[in-house]
TrEMBL record:
Role summary: This protein is involved in the repair of mismatches in DNA. It is required for dam-dependent methyl-directed DNA mismatch repair. May act as a 'molecular matchmaker', a protein that promotes the formation of a stable complex between two or more DNA-binding proteins in an ATP-dependent manner without itself being part of a final effector complex.
Domain DNA mismatch repair protein S5: from-to ranges: 209-327
UniProt-recorded name of the protein: DNA mismatch repair protein MutL
A single BP term in Gene Ontology: mismatch repair
Keyword DNA repair part of the UniProt annotation: yes
Keywords noted in UniProt: DNA damage, DNA repair, Endonuclease, Hydrolase, Nuclease
Similarity comment: Belongs to the DNA mismatch repair MutL/HexB family.
KW NAD (keyword) present: no
Phylogenetic lineage: Bacteria, Pseudomonadati, Bacteroidota, Flavobacteriia, Flavobacteriales
UniProt GO cellular component terms: mismatch repair complex
Full-sequence range covered: 1 to 339 of 616
A GO molecular-function descriptor: ATP-dependent DNA damage sensor activity
């Protein structure tokens, strides 16, 4: 029998990986915003056109990249964030898989402008169809700007699967909220079709929540705080009378990463027991800090699910901290919890 196994060419492998990493425009937004944060940006601007179909651009004032790195960042498994498997258990950055830019460049047209602080000239690169169309030295601001155009240009099935501009914009806005909530200390701008939807200056967590969800949110929030050996917890829950029919504002962050956790959600809901009207869902903004070696973030390509070593203890601590906050609120509902 003849040997029939071949290694897939890079551009095919990247396109396959992109299927997992980039489900829709919002996935691109998430990856680019996270890269800007990892680059220690203090001001991040998101510019979107047509629900992300024609343009998604993220401009940051972070570290920028060298001329070589500006090319290299589009290679698969190219990352500056980890160097060994051991590092997987000490993750302090959003990224570490080195997959996002390679995946995005395989299914869209990408333009990167970047300059490191000390460099006189920066770099401009254009990638089309996974290959470099041009690369030159050029005068650009310090930091990085990445534009992603014509998403899924070479995957008609994915392109056709895209929903209306409003639906895609809603997904993008959800991603934007998560990132902006995870980093109240960073300034964000968000433009869609030329109008500014959000301008969020650096703020306390409470001000950031209000900046996103509006002034009325302020009176809904009850602070939660707890510190144990296993987990440090802070954030806010919404008073039970503001619980909604639809699942609205429910956010968990672990080490500043937005995550989904049905198990921890259950801990929150069970702390509200007896306080909610039927079929309503409490809002919450809860931030957990744990030792990075006690969690595994590498169980899903989008990293929105993580595994805790000691899930049961965290459940119990979370539940009791929320009960405590609710108790305080019930006893003294008129106290001002301003922080
Ligand atoms: P990862 O974030 O997992 O490392 P990416 O494909 O998202 O993988 O990015 C690859 C590399 O490109 C990053 O490790 C980083 O060194 C560099 N990079 C990407 N975006 C930026 C940015 N906005 N500013 C500076 N460097 C960046
Ligand atoms: Mg990344």
């Amino acid at each position: 029998m003849a040997d029939i196994i071949q290694l897939l060419p890079d551009h095919v492998a990247n396109q396959i990986a992109a299927g997992e990493v980039v489900q829709r425009p919002a996935s691109v937004v998430k990856e680019l915003l996270e890269n800007a944060i990892d680059a220690r940006a203090t001001i991040i601007k998101l510019v979107v056109k047509d629900g992300g179909r024609t343009l998604i651009q993220v401009i940051d004032n972070g570290t920028g990249m060298s001329h070589t790195d500006a090319r290299f960042c589009f290679e698969r498994h190219a990352t500056s964030k980890i160097t060994s498997a051991d590092d997987l258990f000490q993750i302090n950055t959003k990224g570490f898989r080195g997959e996002a830019l390679a995946s995005i460049a395989a299914i869209a047209h990408v333009e990167l402008n970047t300059r490191e602080g000390q460099a006189e000239l920066g770099t401009a690169i254009k990638i089309e169809g996974g290959t470099v169309a041009s690369q030159e030295f050029t005068a650009v601001p310090e930091g990085t700007s990445i534009s992603v155009k014509h998403l899924f240009f070479n995957i008609p099935a994915r392109r056709n699967f895209l929903k209306s501009q409003q639906v895609e914009l809603r997904h993008i806005t959800d991603e934007f909220h998560r990132v902006a909530l995870a980093h109240p200390d960073i300034e964000f701008h968000f433009f869609h079709n030329g109008s500014e939807l959000f301008h969020l200056p650096p703020a306390s967590l409470k001000k950031r929540i209000v900046g996103i969800f509006g002034g009325k949110t302020k009176e809904k929030l009850v602070p939660v705080e707890e510190e144990t050996e296993v987990v440090k917890l802070h954030g806010f829950i919404c008073k039970p009378e503001y619980a909604k029919k639809s699942r609205g504002e429910q956010y968990f962050f672990v080490n500043n990463r937005y995550i989904k956790s049905p198990y921890l959600h259950h801990a929150v809901v069970s702390a509200f027991e007896g306080l909610l009207r039927a079929d309503t869902h409490p809002g919450y903004f809860l931030y957990l800090e744990v030792d990075p070696s006690s969690i595994d973030v590498n169980i899903h390509p989008t990293k929105t699910e993580i595994k805790f070593d000691d899930e049961h203890t965290i459940y119990a601590i979370l539940r009791s901290a929320i009960k405590h906050s609710l108790g305080q609120f019930n006893i003294a509902p008129v106290l001002d919890f301003d922080q």
